[in-house]
What does this fold into?
Amino acid sequence: MKKLVVGILAHVDAGKTTLSEAMLYRSGNLKKLGRVDHQDAFLDTDALERERGITIFSKQAVLPLDGLEVTLLDTPGHVDFSSEMERTLHVLDCAILVISGTDGVQGHTRTLWRLLDRYHVPTFLFVNKMDLAGADRQAVLEELRRRLDENCVDFTQEGDPFHEAVAMCGEEALTAYLDTGTVPDSEIVSLIAARRLFPCWFGSALRLEGVDEFLAGLARYARCPDYPAEFAARVYKIARDPQGARLTYLKVTGGTLKVKALLSGGPENDRWEEKADQLRIYSGSRFQTVSEAPAGTVCAVTGLSRTFAGEGLGTEAGAALPLLEPVLTYQVILPDGCDPHTALLKLRELEEEDPQLHLVWNEHLREIHIQLMGEVQLEILRRRIAQRFGLEVSFGQGSIVYRETIAAPAEGVGHYEPLRHYAEVHLLLEPGERGSGLSFASACSEDVLDRNWQRLILTHLTEREHPGVLTGSPITDMKLTLVAGRAHLKHTEGGDFRQATYRAVRQGLKSAGSVLLEPWYDVRLEVPSENLGRAMSDLQQRHGVFQPPETEGDMAVLTGAAPVASLHGYWTEVTAYTRGRGRLFCVPGGYRPCHNTEEVVAALGYDSERDTENPTGSVFCAHGAGFTVPWDQVRSYMHVDSGVRLGAAAELEQEERPAGGRLSGSLADDKELQAIYERTYGKVEREAFRPQPKPARTSLDEGKYNIRSQDRGPEYLLVDGYNIIYAWDELKAAAQSSLDAARQLLLDILSNYQGFRKCVVIVVFDAYKVKGNPGSVSKYHNIHVVYTKEAETADSYIEKATYEIAREHRVRVATSDGAEQLIILGHGALRVSARIFKQEVEQAQGQISAFLAEYNRKNKGSKVGDRLSRP
It folds into this structure.
């Protein structure tokens, strides 16, 4: 039987749990229809859920549906429990989004829609509460199309209007409709799976109106995935049963999971192996054990003690970082006589079950602080702590969870060399896109630092949150790349690189321009029209931004964003000055630069120089004793030159290259490459330091560089398209009026160049911001043109391609990206700067012109001779 995993999501009070109840009842799984207000809903299994009438924890139920086995995952609707909902999105085949027919698209609905889009989840919509006064089908449908997606289609209509609306969602569907007057089911299924069509049904879950039609449509149009034969699974939740047994909830995404199977996970340096003792298929609070779980099954596994939400098992990759983050922090006030360390260990269980529930231990103050989404979650947490651990805790006054990032690239250096210890680390810190989190990479050659040491450094980068230097808040939105390092043959131990790595991060942050980030809310403010001026003034005074106001009847609507800190308690003001008619919807909108950085920094009073647990300086050794060097003097003491040059020196394009000579890009002629390579990897000056597989590199003529010689097949030239366009003046000028024209001009130039040089030319263009873009590879005359897929940059494509091609062929990369140039050197390729590549192209064009002129001259002379020789 085919399996389908379906999640059900909604803004709070839209009727999500009621719809789940109705679906289970109509499928025959329930004998009696429960109700939320009667506290007997089948999926509200927790006492707190029944008491408050809201879903707090995601639950599952299994129901048969026309040859399908559907696993229904009910998720929380309240914004404070959004992280619980977001984790389920990683395992869904499709989703049901419930909309209130009377309230329409609400604030949290937009957040849910963005998350569904981010995780590429096909979505079915059910508009609930259509039996209530004020519910207008056409008005709701128009709002769905306006505020969610124009391809929301009413699937309760029939005939030509239905097929015509569906046909407008895709070219193939339109072609089929024009040919036959209908759109086949297979095409409808494909459009829904590609998130190009969003089917909508209308009804009342409480009265069971429209539920049967919705279930039939779900069975008819939802696509069941095809799974690979090799075992794979993704963990999406950690929980505990009433007896305290740890449960790992996962979806099997490949092969079959059998009871007592040996599973493994964790990082390479800390792998674990444990047996799956029991496989449980839950439906509500009840479960049945099974001996095996085939692909598509959602089950709870006992016996696993080290799994975590988002982890991939088998061949499954780990999940992406969550979009929603906690924005508030509170001190946990323990009862008198309670040991804080003991309490912290107990609270770690709750953090494990909800990774977005961050616990922070302040060693100096011996205080526990907790980060979460909102005040409702705070009250639920207090009750859970009392029920599970018997601790009656309270919480201090809440404050904002800040983050820190950097404004410009910086090199961070760390050295740790007390007596009989040694480690040195060089990191390149680069700012990332807002909301990207932290990413880590290595561009360090194994000739400079062994692979095992490099892996250890990357492990130390990922094993903890690194505090910033402004307020001590965790850093985010950065890429940290290992560019150089050094170990000692006898004295280096694993802990040495931990110290050097941490110090390199801190020193880099001190060198860079730090930026304080604060959480913002996406805001929708609805007020009577006469209160619009007050509302706009309030948002401006709270440092918010908003779009031009809209009018809906006698109400005015402001849509925008504002800092979380400035909106605290504002909803009470809205209620007061609108006399209860106004409504304020706030949903997490990510982090932005803080609006009052100096005030916050002064209030928090963090001093990075006095933070002894996170030192910014380094430790060196002289005369048999270690001594500390402040962060701003460390660079002059370093033993390795990474070759990274930032600011004016970072522009590799500005490096002087001797004039004259054929621009072949060969290793023997490229003196610029020699200088860059030696600065990057350094010289081994002491035998005690490792690795030292070859004599010290002193000159290019010695041929000691670790550039593999490839003499099989043609030479490959990879061109970073947009980097070249914006580095060449004539192409940049063309791009200002038409980027398409600039691309076409570059392709024509490269086609001529390839015809003359006879190399394999691959031009790579960024298309990573194009939603749903699968990427493409095509042929333009005699060259290959690549458009990267969504979320893949040209840099990453070129790095991967270079790594693969350089194994068998000689590879050159033309780009103006300095960081990319350093990385491709480590892959065994030769780099060509944009400036030098332009000279190569101009030289080739000159030789082509000279060849054509000579050919025309000879051809013309031959024709003249022929005419003279005729009788």
